[in-house]
């Protein structure tokens, strides 16, 4: 048993301490599809950690690469210096991302990737003589991390209302999710390009030549797996093009195989100007993010006329050698095992399993795409989040890890999940949903 004496010493991110202390849950080991709990139980991972361990846990090649790198060179600055693995990784990543998004900037997390992408977009507009373009547009229910940039463009009001002034000149498009319309949808809901017209509403509120960029998650993850209707992202792209606005896809969750293609860019066939990634880049082993953009945009940011005098951007841990080693071994694992497209092969089995929960009590919607899924529960009147949280606790006791957001159960297992494990996950989830109030 692990001691819980020092629970006051650590602030649990995302987790209400009071509630956690009542029933502490500790993981002490992980392998492939499972966690080991402090009381020695195996828990099937239905969430890839926190949408990040796409290759599964403690995969030998990645573990060995990290161990070898720690022994060889722990750290090297990315300031006035480089190291070969950073360039090798950048080359491999740009080959994976559809052209022309062939330039890469390394960060230490998803939040840093988002801040970096917003800064690049603003700097690029300025470098091409569009310095009046300072406004940024996000979307309701968008999640872009917890940096000031990310909470400003993010669509979760609670995450920013405590902190006073955010980035100024930020608007939020209405989100695309209509529970009645999406109820029990399979794959992408029907044509809904008109949702993108909300961008036009915002453009009309302001002079379009004041808008720098629009940022969206291709599929919103953390706020409950909100799958865009068909042609929505294409229409956003068209509107941005018409008005000289840059389009940023936040692929921190959708990147690295989640939808059955390497990136959502491939899945939707829509090419934005910038893409943010993190999580699956190192399969969660080491914190790392990467921002992708075109050469023209990158050059304006890093080598623009004003760069040497006023622009400085980079992190101490940009292109950290251990993170680069982990990412290279992760890419090897993805490639050797075909994981970046595996979700497409198994998506039907996943979809059938998920939709088999349709008749469980209190289920009001089910959504899925690739190896991502959501079961939305009817909230208990006056006690929002309670029902899904009870499901989470019961699931943990029954040996499956799920994630909840509000009254939505979100699922995104490692991409190595077998058909039998999918059956086990949904079999146990059915028992959970049948048992809780
Ligand atoms: N963007 C998206 C779409 C995310 O899902 C997340 C994390 N859930 C972030 C940004 C922030 O990433 P991090 O927690 O690594 O800062």
Automatic annotation (TrEMBL):
Q: Which InterPro entries match?
A: Aminotrans_3, Aminotrans_3_PPA_site, PyrdxlP-dep_Trfase, PyrdxlP-dep_Trfase_major, PyrdxlP-dep_Trfase_small
Which keywords fit this entry according to its UniProt record?
A: Aminotransferase, Pyridoxal phosphate, Pyruvate, Transferase
BP-aspect Gene Ontology terms: biotin biosynthetic process
Q: Which cofactor does it need?
A: pyridoxal 5'-phosphate
Kindly list the GO molecular function terms attached to this UniProt entry: adenosylmethionine-8-amino-7-oxononanoate transaminase activity; pyridoxal phosphate binding
Entry-linked Gene3D superfamilies? Aspartate Aminotransferase, domain 1, Type I PLP-dependent aspartate aminotransferase-like (Major domain)
Task: State the Pfam families in the record.
Answer: Aminotran_3
Q: Which domain of life is it from?
A: Bacteria
Family of this protein: Belongs to the class-III pyridoxal-phosphate-dependent aminotransferase family.
**Stated name of the protein:** Beta-alanine--pyruvate transaminase
Q: Which organism is it from?
A: Roseibium hamelinense
């Amino acid at each position: 048993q692990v001691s819980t004496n020092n629970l006051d010493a650590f602030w649990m991110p995302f987790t209400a301490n009071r509630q956690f202390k009542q029933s502490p849950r500790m993981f002490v080991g992980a392998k492939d599809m499972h966690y080991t709990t402090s009381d020695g139980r195996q828990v099937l991972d239905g969430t890839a950690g926190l949408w990040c361990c796409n290759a599964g846990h403690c995969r030998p090649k990645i573990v060995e690469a990290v161990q070898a790198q720690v022994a060889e060179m722990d750290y090297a600055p990315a300031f006035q210096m480089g190291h070969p693995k950073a360039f090798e990784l950048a080359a491999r990543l740009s080959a994976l991302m559809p052209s022309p998004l062939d330039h890469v900037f390394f960060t230490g997390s998803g939040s840093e990737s988002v801040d970096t992408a917003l800064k690049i977009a603003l700097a690029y507009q300025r470098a091409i003589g569009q310095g009046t373009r300072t406004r940024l547009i996000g979307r309701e229910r968008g999640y872009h991390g917890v940096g000031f940039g990310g909470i400003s463009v993010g669509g979760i009001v609670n995450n920013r209302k405590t902190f006073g002034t955010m980035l100024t000149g930020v608007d939020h498009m209405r989100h695309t999710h209509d529970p009645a319309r999406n109820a029990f949808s399979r794959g992408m809901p029907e044509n809904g390009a008109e949702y993108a017209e909300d961008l036009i509403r915002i453009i009309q509120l302001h002079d379009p030549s004041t808008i720098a960029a629009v940022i969206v998650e291709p599929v919103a993850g953390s706020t409950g797996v909100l799958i865009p209707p068909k042609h929505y992202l294409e229409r956003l792209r068209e509107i941005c093009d018409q008005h000289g606005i840059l389009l940023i896809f936040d692929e921190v969750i959708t990147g690295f195989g989640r939808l059955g293609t390497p990136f959502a860019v491939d899945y939707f066939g829509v090419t934005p100007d910038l893409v943010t990634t993190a999580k699956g880049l190192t399969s969660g082993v080491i914190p790392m993010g990467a921002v992708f953009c075109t050469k023209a945009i990158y050059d304006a940011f890093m080598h623009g006329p004003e760069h040497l005098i006023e622009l400085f951007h980079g992190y101490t841990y940009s292109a950290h050698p251990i993170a680069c080693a982990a990412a290279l071994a992760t890419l090897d694992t993805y490639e050797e095992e075909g994981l970046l497209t595996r979700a497409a092969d198994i998506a039907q089995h996943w979809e059938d399993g998920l939709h088999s929960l349709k008749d469980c009590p209190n289920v009001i919607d089910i959504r899925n795409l690739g190896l991502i899924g959501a079961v939305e529960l009817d909230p208990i009147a006056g006690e929002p989040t309670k029902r899904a949280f009870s499901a989470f606790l019961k699931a943990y006791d029954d040996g499956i890890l799920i994630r909840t957001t509000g009254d939505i159960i979100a699922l995104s297992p490692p991409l190595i999940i077998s058909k039998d494990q999918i059956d086990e996950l949904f079999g146990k989830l059915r028992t959970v949903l049948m048992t809780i109030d």
